[in-house]
Every structure is written in C-alpha cells, then in structure tokens.
Specification:
With 379 residues, the chain is α+β, with helices and mostly antiparallel strands. The chain is built from twelve helices and 14 strands. It has four domains: 73 residues, no CATH class; 95 residues, no CATH class; 42 residues, no CATH class; 121 residues, Nucleotidyltransferase, domain 5.
C-alpha cells in the first residue's frame, strides 16, 4: 500500500515553524490575539484572528497581502500546544503486594467489620502480617467515599457544620472538628504529591492580591495564575499589601513550573515590579516582559484574576474569615480549583486537564489521595 508523502514546507512555513519552536517567541494575549517576535528580535507583530482568517501587522502581510511567517508561527504554536504529552493519574483500586514487605504471597483472610461497612482482610505468607487494602484511608473510621464527599461539599461552598448535617442524614455521626481534621490530613498529603507533577502552562502568567480576614485581622492573599489554562500556580498570605515582597511568590512559581514566563501581567503594585526584576528579568532573548499598566478593557486587562478573586471571595464568605494564617483551607481550595472544579470558560474542563494532567475515575479526590498515599509510601 502506497503512503502519501507529506507536502514539503515552503520558506515562509519553515520560518514560521522555527519561530514557533523557540521558547517565548509566540505570546498568547487571548484566544484571538497573539504577539509574535521577529526572527531578528527587533520587532513584535500582532497576529489577530478575524472572520476572514488570521491577520498580521508585519510589512509582508500588510503590503503583499500574503500569509506571513508570523501567522504560520501562530498556527504551528497552537498545534504544538494541542499535542503536548498528557499526564494521567490513574485509579488505584487494589494492590497485589503486601503493604509491609512488598511480597506477592498474600491471601484473603476474613473480613473486618467496620461501623460503616465490611473491609476485606489479607494475610501475608512471607512476613505473617494481617492488613487491609484501603490505600490512603487506613485506620479511618469512615469509608473513603464519605470522606471525599465531605471534602467535595466543603470546597464547593458548604460550611463544616452543613457538611456535618449532610453526613448525619446519611446515618453518619461526625463532628465538624473531625471533618476539618480530614481536610487538614488529606490536603497536606495531596499537596506534597501534586507539587511533583508539572503542568504544561503557557508563557503568560497573571498575579494579583486579595484581602482576607484571619482571626479578624486584615491579611492579603497573593496568587499567581497561568493565563491560558487558568492553573493556580502559587500562593502566599501576607500581613501587608504595599510593603510585602512578592519575590517568594514568583520564585515559587518558577520552581514549580520549571520555567519563567515571557509575559507577567499584574496591577501597578511596586511589590510585583521589584520581584519581577529580581526573579524573571533577563537580558537574553526572548526577554521577559512585565505588563503592569492594565486597563478595564482591551488586551492588557486583569479580568481573569478579578474573576478568580471573586471565586475565592465567595468561598471565604461562607467561612466568615480564616482562623489562622497557615490554614490548609487555601491549599485545599487551590487543589479543588486546579484538579476538581470544571470551568465554563475552559469548555467545562479543569485547569489541570487543559494543562495536560488527567485525573481518572468518577471520584477524583479518591484517585489523588490513593496516588499520593502510594507515593508517600514509596519515598
């Protein structure tokens, strides 16, 4: 059977591919607007999506009315973004090895009667230990689905006491303090695991600050978010706004993402300018840019961060403020925002899915907890 040879690229296409493959040469402003640097590095051109197709502000497109290398670069960049490797976090429903000695010489040996159901017991013929396979939920008095349902209810907006009332309707008597302890335990476990998985974020990031009350005192939540995927990259709680050093926030983002952005969009707070100069600025091309003069409308607005702030504000109102600065609630909401909550603006996908991370199974909380527990056990 004969296979059709791929059509060779013309000179403009080849130059466009070269531009697209260089880090930071194609900057996404929004879904219909991109800024593309020239190969010489002396110019930046606007590539816009219109009803009649792509348009570019470069002389080649304007005077010759021909599809230029910058348009090709934008198209190749979009294709490359769609073909990124997908990282899958799979369900772990069982294990064939002893949890004590890793031997495969295990047999079923009775059932442990739990208040909320029966759990299969196993006996290891190698080391003689009895154990149950309940990965991540060992020695918990509630079933995994009860714990993950409580977490889902809480992070979707219910108070701890409302979650307690819901569980009571299911015949499960737990105090609101016990529910908080579940959240604290599993947020810490999941956060350590998820920080090891690097999402495929864009080269444009946004940062903003939001005031919160902690034990009645005013604090500020500084957050860093990817523009394209809306992945919440990093956070920190500060005592002040105008004298705070945001360098640690940007440093944390660079470390977790394995790169720095080519464009950072913030408001005019001096903390961002100082932090950008120390953490992201470079004389090498492509030179990172800090856009801090934002507008209500147009390309350089911070509307996505304002929407994000509203999302966090809605959750904070239910809690009537935070009880302590190092609360696990904010980290837990970051996990919920990135991996559990589907966003209409992302075509009902989670930021993690858009960034190339897929959580399998109907109960994503349980899938993450199982994998985090397995990772903790192996380290």
């Amino acid at each position: 059977m004969l296979t059709k040879k791929p059509t060779p690229l013309n000179s403009r296409q080849q130059k466009g591919l070269t531009i697209a493959q260089l880090n930071g040469m194609v900057q996404r402003i929004d879904a219909n607007a991109y800024k593309v640097k020239s190969q010489s590095g002396n110019g930046i051109y606007d590539v816009l999506a219109t009803e009649s197709g792509w348009k570019c502000t470069c002389p080649d497109f304007v005077h010759r009315n021909q599809k230029c290398k910058h348009v090709f670069a934008t198209e190749f960049s979009l294709t490359l973004r769609k073909t990124v490797e997908v990282k899958r976090i799979e369900q772990i429903t069982s294990t064939a090895n002893c949890i004590f000695c890793s031997s495969d010489r295990i047999v079923k040996d009775g059932v442990r009667h739990n208040k909320y159901g029966d759990i299969q017991k196993f006996n290891c013929k190698a080391c003689g230990h009895y154990f149950t396979i309940n990965l991540g939920f060992e020695r918990m008095r509630a079933k995994p689905e009860i714990i993950t349902s409580a977490m889902q209810l809480y992070f979707t907006g219910e108070s701890l006491r409302n979650v307690q009332k819901f569980l009571k309707m299911q015949g499960i008597s737990k105090s609101h303090v016990a529910i908080y302890k579940w959240i604290k335990k599993y947020v810490s476990l999941m956060n350590i695991y998820l920080e090891q998985i690097q999402p495929n974020v864009s080269d444009t990031w946004r940062a903003d600050e939001l005031y919160l009350k902690v034990r009645g005192n005013m604090k500020y939540l500084f957050a860093l978010m990817d523009d394209e995927t809306r992945f919440w990259i990093a956070q920190e709680v500060a005592d002040t706004k105008f004298t705070h050093n945001a360098r640690e926030l940007l440093k944390q983002g660079k470390k977790l993402m394995g790169k720095k952005p080519t464009l950072l969009i913030t408001d005019g707070l001096p903390a961002y300018r100082n932090a950008f100069d120390k953490e992201y600025f470079s004389l090498k091309n492509p030179r990172p840019k800090h856009q801090y003069t934002i507008r209500i409308s147009g390309d350089m607005n911070n509307n996505k961060m304002e929407r994000f702030n509203g999302e966090v504000r809605d959750r904070e109102k239910v809690m009537r403020g935070l009880k302590k600065k190092e609360t696990p609630i904010l980290k837990g909401y970051q996990i919920f925002h990135n991996y559990i909550r589907e966003h209409e603006a992302l075509n009902n996908k989670t930021p993690a899915e858009v960034a190339g991370i897929t959580i399998e199974g109907k109960d994503k909380w349980r899938t993450i907890i199982e994998n985090a527990s397995m990772n903790h056990r192996n380290t």
